[in-house]
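User: Continuing from earlier, I have the next pair ready.

Assistant: Great, send them over.

User: Here they are, in order.

Assistant: Folding the first of the pair now:
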Amino acid sequence: MSITIQRILELPLFTGASVASGQLGLHSPIDSVNVMVKLPHEQEEDGSAPAIPDISTWLGKNQMLFTTEHVIAGNGSLSLRFLQQMSCAECAGLVVKANHREANLPGDLLEASNRLGLPVIALPNDASLGEMMSQVLSIILNEKQVELERTFEIHRKFSRLFLNGASMSDVAQTLTGVIHHPILIQNNRRQIVGWSATARQRALSPAFQSELLQLSVHHAAAEGRLIYCVTESGEKLGIYPIHSSGMFKGSIIVMHADDTIDTSVMPLEQAAQIIAYESIKQDALMEGSNRLREEFFGELLENELSSVEEILKRGEKYGLTNKGQHWVVVSKPLAHTFEGHSTFQMEHAQLEHLMNEVHAYMEARNIQMIGTTKGEHVVLILTSLQETPPAGQEGEWIRLLEQLQEHMENGKDRWMIASGISNPADQLDRLPRAYQEASQALRHGLERNRGPFVSSYRVQQVPDLIRLLPYHKLSEFYVSVLKHLAYAKNEESLELLHTLDIYLQNNCNVKETATAMYLHRNTVFYRLNKCETMLGLSFKDPIDLLKLRMAVMIHQILTATEK
């Protein structure tokens, strides 16, 4: 229980004290005390620097300040400014000893105190500031000692659990005994791995598991802070995220949460340390199996496995099935925030952390997903057992990936992700080809975009092939074909180039070209004849038409690139 001004006023030494103003701040906690013998001045009357240091620079949060009416009286503007400085520093309150029998404080000071919610306590003239400060400090130190002893005792309880190899449910039950609330514990994939006896029924409920997963995924994991959320039934939950070395390790879920939890964060911190240690231990134990998993998917995606039977036999334990259609997604993290700083370098542990975050999000959406890391990428295999047409299902996957990107970018780590998605593969032995397609889609997307995107694989069309050629080669070709029209700037040249483009789009049909451009046929004939003369080409020659089509297409590609 923290020391507040309300509790201080109940001490025998404060019997004659009265609350002059700022009653709304009486429950402010007090962590320290200080004394003010003079209001801070910018300079002395003779222009020299102040003889007494400026106390406003020493103000601290939750600090109670003692002074006398003599210091306050006759300094209206300075008093108001100092009160504002106390409020900005989040001080607990101001105690003023009267010059005479009762304090006569300025009305504007009391009004400002009420407005700021900063208590001003008036003391009678016979009160001893030294004794009061000494007693308040003594109470604060006693409370701190009790808090330290309680912290040590709680730490010893949890340390004993860790050394004895206790389960997460044992940790949850011990924490429940300390804060008197049912407790659930989630791992880094937001799966419930421990619960107290009073939370067992909810922990085993599939409906509650699904709802809790969605709540915890969609609430940013702010380190060292309790986050509140409300279930559909109106129950208030507290989510305390656990981090170690900047990595998310799980959460402590406090059920039936109320305002008293804010004062009991210390037990959560102690339990979080033990859970983080256990998570690190489990990660070390899983390192071997994770390596085997990565080796299997590496061989699978590089087409080093000989048959569907071998793929199915080795991959069944990871969730691979030969039913339905499979899409491969290759995702590359562009940037994220690590320990409060933006970084573009990704270590393997950070990729594993990203994959766990993606897995938790997909599980919250009831999407079955298989994930692995490969190089600097996270590779996902999405499977659909529904009879949805491939094009429609691909559209759903793209929307899901875009929502995932938005969720990850808005989370604590601020992940920015670029993804490429393959065409569907109806057999497991076609996954290597799908992986190549997704990688190619990602690579092409990175050439065109700098921010997050989802790029789907498409069989390369003529424009895609053209883009693979060097710029100077393309420029030489289209200038040699289009001649003066290659750099058309005046109105006439632009009209001729536009007419030529529409003519080619309409399969060299003059009538359809005239209709599309709202021109008379003779006008189109005139422009086309002029183009033939300028370019030295025949629009009846298939080779010349092919050159012309290629040149116009190159011109459009280069113009779009320059823009």
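And the other member of the pair:
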Amino acid sequence: MIRMVPNILTLGRLVGTVGFLAMVLYSPRIAAEVRWKWLDAAFVLFVVSSLTDIIDGKIARKYNVTSRFGRMLDPLVDKILVCGAFISFALIGQPRLFDWDDTTQRVIQWSVAAILILREAYVTILRHWAETRGINFAATWSGKLKMFIQVFAIGTVMVKMAHVPTATWGSCFTSTVFIVMIAVTVASGLMASRRPSLRQAHLQTTG
């Protein structure tokens, strides 16, 4: 039974992620005076879903119940959570930064989403290439750091939307978090492509 727990938690995180994204997309339809409550509820669901990622990982390592299915499903759910969140934010025109015009806001929102999607697509291709050749492509410290900062950035946007939508300091903080997130996201993608195991496998394939 314990062997199934990590995958069950991951599937639960997928359900929670879908619920969170639906709440974000629906939030503009909620009356302005109570929207913060709706967003706070979505934030709680997001936090719970994110915590299951830590829990299932600890259980899998403690009881040595990792599986190929889990190694594929876990990062997939992470990608749905992160990329889905920033696509949802862009679709509802969030976050609004400073007093910039709508065009600038849209460019920033969709550019952030595009960078994250391209990075995840690139690493997914690398993971598939590695797994089909029997190469272990488990998460590394750079990937975990990237995920932590992305989750923190999503939380930052949620708090800004709910409680400080027009505050200048909120825009400053969110902008800083975005810059750090993009830098770490790009760097982790480059580091993933330079894994020694991948380079060795490539040399063997082309050699």
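Worth noting for the second one:
The two ends are 45 Å apart (CA to CA). The helical segments are 5-26, 35-62, 68-91, 102-131, 141-163, 168-193, 196-206.
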